[in-house]
Amino acid sequence: MRFKDQVVWITGASSGIGEGLAQVFHKEGAELVLSARRESELERVKAQCTQGPGAIHILPFDVIDASAREAAYRRTQAVAGRVDVLVNNAGISQRSLGKDTSMDVDRRIMEVDYFAPIALTKLVLPEMIARKSGQFVVTSSVAGKYGVPMRTAYCAAKHALHGYYDTLRLELNPYNIRICLLVIAGIRSEVSRHALTGDGGVWGKEDWGPNEGISAIEGGEIIVDGVAKGKHEIDIASGTGLDYLRLKREDPDLLVQKMAFKKVPGQ
User: Fold this and answer.
1) With 0-12 CB in 10 A as exposed, 13-18 as middle and 19+ as buried, what is 140?
2) How do the domains of the chain map onto residue ranges?
3) Is 70 exposed, middle or buried (0-12, 13-18, 19+ CB in 10 A)?
4) Residue 188 — pLDDT band, cuts 50, 70, 90?
5) In this structure, is the dihedral angle defined by the CA atoms of residues 66, 67, 68 and 70, taken in order, positive or negative?
6) pTM for this one?
7) Which range, of 2-11, 61-70, 164-173, 204-213, averages the lowest pLDDT?
8) What homologous superfamily is domain 7-240 in, according to CATH?
9) 180 bridge partner residues
10) Of these residues, 154, 165, 175, 244, which one is catalytic?
11) What is the overall mean pLDDT for the chain?
12) CA-to-CA distance for 131 and 123, rounded, in angstroms?
C-alpha cells in the first residue's frame, strides 16, 4: 500500500476521474477526503471504496466559492489533521465556438478550471512547506498542450495550469513538494455532458462511444502509479489524442492542418 496513512483530498470526486482515483487511492491505503457539490454522489462513491483501511470523509462544497473553500480546508484539518496529497480534479469543459461564447462563460471556466485549483493550492501549501513534504496532482488535458476547436476557454484554462504548476514545481523543489500534471484524453467521464455552451447552457451530450476510451478505474490505476513514482507529468491519452501530442512537438504546422475547420461551421 503505497499511500498508507497518507491523507488524500480529491475535488471533483463525485464521478469520472475523481471517482476512479478515490477507489484506487483508498485501495493503496490512503485516508480520503472527497469533495464535490453533490453530497449524494459523494456518498455513493464512498460506498464503493471498500478495498482499503483508511477513513473516508465527505466534504461537499463549490470550488469557486472562496468562503466555502476556506471552510472546507479548515474542516479537512479538523477531521484528518493534514493534507498529504491534494488532487485538484474539479473542472468544467466547453462546447462552443470562441466567437459565440459569452465573456461570462469564459470567466466561469477560468474560475473553475484555473483560479479554483490555485486557490486551494495556496490554502494547503503552508502546511506542506512547514513539514517539507506533500504532493499536488492536477487534472489537465491534451487541451492544455494544443488547441482543440469548440474549447477556446477550456484550452486557455488548461494551458494556464501548465504554466502555473510547472513554475511552482521549480519553486517548491527545496521543500520536497512534488507536482504531477495529468494530460488526459482517453478516460470515459461525464465531462462532455456537463460542458457549457456559449450562452452558459449545458451541452448534455456524450462525446464518447460505448467502446471508446478506458474506464475511470483503469485511468486511476495509471495515475496513482505515476504519482507514487513521482512523475512530473502523466499522459493518459490514446488514438488521435496521443498522435496530436506528438505532432505538437514534432510538426505543429501539420497539427494545425489536421485540426482546423475546412469550412465555416454550420454551413
Assistant:
1) buried
2) 7-240
3) middle
4) confident
5) positive
6) 0.95
7) 204-213
8) NAD(P)-binding Rossmann-like Domain (3.40.50.720)
9) 137
10) 154
11) 95
12) 15
pLDDT at 9: 98
Is the pLDDT reported for residue 266 higher than 70? Answer: no
Task: Give yes or no for residue 267 having a pLDDT over 70.
Answer: no
Taking the C-alpha atoms of residue 174 and residue 150, their distance in angstroms, rounded to an integer, is 40
Q: Of 246, 250, 194, which Cα lies nearest the Cα of 36?
A: 194
Nearest residue to 122 (alpha-carbon basis) of 175, 170, 86, 163:
86
3-state secondary structure the chain: CCCCCCEEEECCCCCHHHHHHHHHHHHCCCEEEECCCCHHHHHHHHHHCCCCCCCEEECCCCCCCHHHHHHHHHHHHHHHCCCCEEEECCCCCECECHHHCCHHHHHHHHHHHHHHHHHHHHHHHHHHHHHCCEEEEEECCHHHCCCCCCEHHHHHHHHHHHHHHHHHHHHHHHHCEEEEEEEEECECCCCCCCCECCCCCECCCCCCCCCCCECHHHHHHHHHHHHHCCCCEEEEECCHHHHHHHHHHHCHHHHHHHHCCCCCCCC
Task: Scan for cell 488548461, then name that residue.
Answer: 158
Q: Identify any residues that bridge with 58 across adjacent strands, giving them in sequence order.
A: 34
Q: Which amino acid is at 204?
A: G
Please report the pLDDT score of residue 206 as a whole number.
83
154 is catalytic: yes
- Average pLDDT on 97-103 reads 98
Which amino acid, residue 260?
A: A
Are residues 180 and 162 in contact, defined by beta-carbon separation less than 8 angstroms? Answer: no
How many CB atoms neighbour CB 132 within 10 A? 11
So what's the pLDDT on residue 66?
Answer: 98
